[in-house]
Specification:
Elements lengths: L12 H13 L5 E5 L7 E6 L4 E6 L10 H14 L8 E5 L2 H4 L3 E5 L17 H19 L18 H15 L6 H12 L8 E3 L8 E3 L6 E4 L6 E3 L2 H9 L27 H12 L6 H24 L6 H21 L4
Antiparallel strand pairs: 1-2, 2-3, 3-5, 4-5, 6-9, 7-8
Helix pairs in contact: 4-8, 5-6, 5-9, 6-9, 6-10, 7-8, 7-9, 9-10
Length: about 350
């Protein structure tokens, strides 16, 4: 398809993207409607036209990692791969032309839904019924993701499944040894335990990599999931890791003190809400997979997240980042390690 080349870089980024969308998608009167909240790594912008809407995802102006654009490119590949198989926004376009605004971006379908953390889309919903419905739907939608199994055309561009758990442990143990911010002996003790007790990966598949209710869009009229979003960490690996991360943030069984990131899936922490084992059983029965080692996987999910976000805390300590999220990691990282220790002991 041919489109009119314009002098993109002379305008503000949102304006240049709007003109590019007109040229590429054939839309008219495209305008920037505003930023969308969510995520700590990428920008999410809403655009409207005379008759359509879309979402543009790109890296921040000053991305921390020089390779951060790879996540956006990965997300574009995944959206194309799962179309028709999984509830996810449809990929409308991909732009790798740096002349447009200096960094690549993807364009995806606009889906009118709510990202849920501590409040539900409607005050009229029964909070326990809604939380239970959303928790079960989370597992059913995740089962669909894990139905995209290895080998499948396109998955080989996302990663390789061999020794997935071992490579994760080696990578993040190495990073934390080389980039130490503070004394965290439990991180290394748990890392050694996780290495010594690795289960065998059961049928590698596509995994989301950051799956929890906050990374879905919930219908505004009824408690059901309309789409899974934020696929930049998707890869080929052990599906139980996705389940474990979602379960880590579910319910109130999360260590003796206040949990890490207490806002995530906060709607699940009410008396009468189904527990982790109920959700794990639903996923296992739907996929035909085992949940026998789920305690291990929850421990690994909490440990891995702690190892990753400790890097952001290091940037805060160094004065390179100053946000409430980064400052809160002073507590959140040790809390995650405490939750990992509890799950490793079989208490999940």
């Amino acid at each position: 398809m041919q489109f009119r080349r314009r002098q993109f870089m002379s305008r503000a980024p949102q304006d240049t993207v709007a003109r590019w969308l007109e040229d590429t998608l054939g839309w008219s009167s495209v305008a920037f409607a505003g930023p969308l909240s969510g995520g700590n790594s990428n920008l999410t912008w809403h655009f409207t036209s005379a008759s359509e809407s879309c979402v543009v995802r790109t890296t921040p102006d000053e991305a921390i990692s020089p390779t951060s654009a790879r996540g956006i490119e990965r997300e574009s590949k995944v959206l194309k791969l799962v179309e028709g198989l999984v509830k996810a926004p449809k990929l409308l376009a991909w732009c790798s032309d740096l002349e447009v605004m200096g960094r690549p971006f993807l364009v995806q379908q606009w889906i009118d839904g709510r990202s849920v953390t501590d409040t539900l889309p409607s005050e009229e919903w029964d909070p326990v019924f809604a939380a239970n419905a959303l928790g079960e739907d989370m597992m059913l939608q995740l089962a669909a993701v894990h139905g995209v199994t290895w080998p499948k055309a396109g998955l080989d561009t996302l990663g390789r499944p061999d020794d997935f758990l071992g490579r994760q442990l080696q990578r993040w143990l190495g990073v934390r040894r080389e980039q130490s911010v503070r004394e965290l002996p439990l991180l290394f003790e748990l890392g050694a335990w996780l290495q010594d007790n690795m289960p065998t990966t059961e049928r590698p598949a596509l995994i989301h990599g950051d799956y929890h209710l906050d990374n879905t869009l919930v219908d505004r009229e009824t408690p059901r999931i309309k789409a899974i979003i934020d696929w930049e960490l998707a890869t080929v690996g052990d599906p139980a890791m996705d389940v474990a991360l979602a379960l880590l943030f579910w319910g109130d069984k999360r260590g003796n003190g206040a949990p890490a990131f207490p806002h995530l899936q906060a709607v699940s922490r009410l008396p009468g809400v189904v527990d982790r084992r109920h959700l794990a059983t639903l996923w296992a029965s739907t996929t035909g997979r085992s949940m026998e080692a789920m305690g291990y996987y929850i421990a690994l999910a909490a440990w891995r997240l702690a190892a990753i976000v400790e890097g952001a805390y290091g940037l805060y300590v160094a004065g390179k980042v100053d946000t409430p999220y980064a400052a809160g990691l002073q507590y959140d990282v040790p809390a995650l390690l405490a939750e990992a220790e509890q799950a490793a002991a079989g208490n999940w």
